[in-house]
Design brief:
There is one protein chain. The protein is of the alpha/beta class and 348 residues long. The chain has helices at 7-12, 33-40, 45-49, 52-66, 79-84, 105-108, 116-119, 121-134, 147-156, 164-172, 174-198, 215-221, 223-232, 249-252, 268-275, 294-308, 327-344, and strands spanning 71-72, 89-91, 95-97, 140-145, 202-207, 238-242, 259-261, 280-285, 313-317. It has a seven-stranded parallel sheet. It is globular.
């Protein structure tokens, strides 16, 4: 299907664009009353993720309401461990909880390399429903968690400030860690390839807990597996977003991906030097900017756009939008990107 708005895809590939494309991580949900209305009518988060028609509905909401240049399928990175046999619960105001963790060779025997068509069909169905409903308006982004981040949850059992159990395994049983990472990677590659077949126009890999590893451990336990994923997804552009991994930006320049996401702690000019000229950069506004005044949002957004420049940039926040953010402030950010881009290139 021909895209009516292909700015995101062209920017990712390094092609010329009329203006900088813009979308937000975690735009599907949380901040929108329309999302909460759907969510509150259900038993919980997982029912929404696992009901394709409803997942599609909340995926499209930010396209309609916030006027972003892309949709991202409403799902969660933790559907992968669930598909592998390590189930999770989403506890209100606490986050994910895994009743059974993976800490021994015996635990590993409970897991499988998942078949996405059997164990993750609801995500693939949601992508198909969303694509039909979008009818080419904007691209649809598919995603998965990076293997290290998925391991961190499976071993720790929940979110954590330190992930001490997961990080400890890298020292006490690195062989087990690599075995688990192998299974996660094989599952993730098949899952992302199936997302592309279902209609995803771009893939993003989220390494949410990259920044808690030492550079040496990151290069051993995360980077090689991300590289495998990038090598396996070649029909659509791939974005790697590794929060906190400023120490790995030069390594990312060698990945077989089109776009590198920057968090708000990463200096734009320094990052461009480290990544080099051949990757698109995505980000990296501090999500807390959206608590400020409309004037401040406009000023800081234009400042960011000037620093990135008009090409090889996808505007986004440096992390997911926070749940108590005013949607009108998000609209201000999005419209500022759009209006500045058009004016800067003489299109407005």
């Amino acid at each position: 299907m021909q895209l009516k708005n292909d700015l995101l895809i062209r920017a990712a590939r390094g092609e010329a664009v009329e203006r900088t494309p813009v979308w937000l991580m975690r735009q599907a949900g949380r901040i929108l009353p329309e999302y909460r209305a759907v969510r509150n009518s259900l038993s919980g988060f997982k029912e929404l993720v696992e009901t394709p028609d409803l997942a599609a509905e909340v995926t499209i909401q930010p396209v309609d309401i916030l006027d972003v240049d892309a949709a991202i399928i409403f799902s969660d990175i933790l559907v992968v461990p669930e598909a592998m046999g390590c189930t999770y619960e989403m506890v209100e105001k606490r986050g994910p909880l895994f009743p059974k963790t993976i800490r021994t060779e015996e635990d590993l025997k409970r897991l499988r390399v998942a078949d996405p068509h059997e164990h993750l069909h609801y995500v693939l169905d949601a992508i198909k429903v969303t694509k039909r409903a979008l009818n080419g308006r904007v691209p649809l982004i598919g995603f998965a968690g990076a293997p290290w981040t998925i391991l961190a949850y499976m071993v720790e059992g929940s979110g954590s400030k330190t992930f001490s159990h997961a990080r400890g395994m890298l020292y006490t049983n690195p062989k087990l860690a690599h075995q688990l990472l192998r299974m996660i990677t094989d599952t993730t590659i098949a899952y992302l390839q199936a997302q592309v077949e279902a209609g995803a126009n771009l893939i993003q890999v989220f390494d949410s807990w990259a920044g808690i590893l030492s550079p040496a451990h990151y290069r051993e336990f995360s980077l090689p597996y991300i590289s495998e994923i990038c090598n396996a997804i070649r029909n659509v552009p791939v974005t790697v977003f590794a929060k906190g991994a400023f120490f790995a930006l030069e390594d990312f320049s060698k990945l077989n991906c089109e776009t590198i996401g920057l968090d708000w702690n990463m200096d734009i000019k320094t990052s461009r030097v480290q990544v080099g000229p051949n990757k698109t950069l995505q980000g990296n506004m501090d999500p807390c900017l959206l608590y400020s005044s409309f004037d401040t949002i406009q000023h800081e957004t234009i400042k960011m756009l000037k620093e990135f420049g008009p090409q090889r940039h996808i505007a986004n926040l440096g992390h997911g939008v926070y749940p108590d953010t005013d949607p009108e402030k998000v609209k201000c950010f999005v419209q500022t990107v759009k209006e500045y881009g058009s004016l800067a290139l003489g299109n407005g």
